[in-house]
Amino acid sequence: MNQIAAGEVIDRPASIVKELVENSLDAGATHIEIHIEEGGLNLIEVRDNGSGIHYDDLPLAVSAHATSKLQHTYDLFNIHSFGFRGEALASIGAVARLRLTSTTADAPHGGILVVENGAVQTHQPIAHPQGTLIAVDRLFHTIPARKKFLKSARSEWAKIVDVLTALMLAHNEVAFTLRHNQQCIYQLPVQEHLSTQRLATLVSHSFAQAVLPVAVAREEWQLSGFIASPRYTRASADQQWLFVNGRPIKDRQLSFSIKLAYDDLLHGQRHPAFVLFLTLDPTKVDVNVHPAKTEVRFADGRALSDALRYAIRETLAQQATLLNDAHVMQPSHTMQHQTASRIEPTNPTTQWRVKEDKADWSAQVQAELSWQSKAVHLENVPISVASTQVMSEEVVEDEQYLGQARAQIQGVYIVAENRQGLVLVDMHAAHERVVYERLKRQWSELSQTSQPLLVPLIVPLSVHQQALMESLMVQLAELGFIIDWLGESSCVVRAVPALLVKADLSDLLFKLLDSIDQGGSADHFIARQQDILLSSMACHGSVRANRQLTLAEMNALLRQMEQTPNSGQCNHGRPTWIQMTMTELDKLFLRGQ
Ligand SMILES: Nc1ncnc2c1ncn2[C@@H]1O[C@H](COP(=O)(O)OP(=O)(O)OP(=O)(O)O)[C@@H](O)[C@H]1O
Ligand SMILES: [Mg+2]
């Protein structure tokens, strides 16, 4: 019986490690030492300095459904600890040998209890410092069928590292020591906050150098942690950690909405990287959904994921411009330093002095760079350089982190020089982003307004589509659509959000219904369609490659990029500029080696 229950939770060494370390965290440990032999196939040992277990309670700790963590059944809806079922140790003891040694603060002595295959073998006093040591070996010794499912030591080890990485990311207040086959893998000191140092150790150096801190507080929830700048992307979703009330969880909807926040900043199939902590009222999350507690259910999942998406979008937009990316690339900068080096956007005209003799170029540059879209009747989409003035010597250097243009190469790249060294800018990609962000800002108000169609559009719908449409009517009206039913099986579109007036509307409606059918949200879909339109407008409206620019024009573009959110990527997610530091250049020429 025990073995059946055990099958749910204890399927491999990594799940044992997870249960043991979570117990140590629940016991308030500030130092946890983990020692693994052969990917856990030979030995798993977890030692902590937590509260310990009283000698008399040792048998209780390993018996099924005994937990010290929930006093009442209603506690189940208000869970603050990792453990609550009182099942983990019993399940481990049922399929392996478990040696439990522990001492509480006030006890005259500690105790050791040994369980093997569900039977208590030893229970006797022993001297042991305060805290608990649990050793697990002989895993699945008597269950060959289960043992067969274990992988090689190497791949079991990889799974253990995955599990521990999440726990170590979430618990900076705890010192961890991890040893594998006697070799020290990690030694992490206690820290007040999750530091970039811990991120570098546990995730990667390049991730730690590319992170943007997130701190968003709403009435119902708080989001903190780090997201990688869109410059740092992954081929798979392997560097994504989401913690809900400290618990690492997998939630497809939330992960998906975080990815959506990067929408037009990521290239193709790339994935963002993040370590995010969501805190909310425990009564609003059900953690008792999955035996391994890796899934949770939210009271209002849809609203939460929409809100998260906006929050991350906001962080990306704010920080991508403000953060001097050149600084992020310096490995020596700590997070604190990066925060300090982030600069508030200032109006360049207030700081820069125009040199009189150059004043006449700005009109010319403006004429050349500004773009009018006749197709959409925009009144002079302002790619104005009026606010972008000639540099004076007194310029605050950090604000012009893209430096000074020096030359143009083959009509494609701008070569510039900044404090760190060389900057190369893809002219077209950069301008496209500048235009796009500006269009987007302009349209953000207009997109909410509704524009009547000259000829109303009749759209026949299948029974399934009718049901979907019915459920969307109110929301679509809020977004600027006026849609009525026409008979039983068709609807008639009378007005749409202004920006969509030129789109292929019936195609758009069908795609919208499809996306709703697959669990998408209407406002996101519409926003995305608008982004696509804007992005194609921006692409056509931006400077083409092979156009000669004057130095002044190049500088004007650099200054606009510095003022534009997300200007590090074009709308297709490609980088718009790269930095090569003096050190990197020196390396190329083997200088100083
Ligand atoms: N490292 C530890 N330090 C102190 N007490 C512990 C430790 N590990 C286990 N215990 C005690 O043993 C009990 C049983 O642990 P077990 O992991 O089986 O159950 P749980 O943590 O209560 O619930 P769950 O099955 O959800 O993990 C705990 O409730 C706790 O009282
Ligand atoms: Mg437990």
Q: CATH homologous superfamily name of the largest domain?
A: MutL, C-terminal domain, dimerisation subdomain
Distance between the termini: 67 Å
Largest sheet: 8 strands, mixed
Query: From the alpha-carbon coordinates, what is the Rg to the nearest angstrom?
Result: 30 Å
Ranges where pLDDT stays below 50 over 5 or more residues in a row are: 1-7, 322-397
Helix content: 25-40%
> Which descriptor suits the 3D outline?
globular
Task: Give the integer mean of the pLDDT values.
Answer: 78
Notes on the protein architecture:
With 593 residues, the protein is of the alpha+beta class. It has three domains: 2-188, Heat Shock Protein 90; 196-338, Ribosomal Protein S5, domain 2, CATH 3.30.230; 343-593, MutL, C-terminal domain, dimerisation subdomain (formyl-coa transferase, domain 3, 2-Layer Sandwich), CATH 3.30.1540. Helix content is 36%, strand content 23%. The chain has 20 helices and 22 strands. A hairpin with a 2-residue loop joins strand 7 (175-180) and strand 8 (183-188). The longest helix is centred in the middle third of the chain and has 22 residues, at 301-322. Bound molecules: adenosine-5'-triphosphate and magnesium ion. Residues 19, 23-24, 26-27, 48, 50-53, 61, 67-69, 83-90, 132 line the site of adenosine-5'-triphosphate.
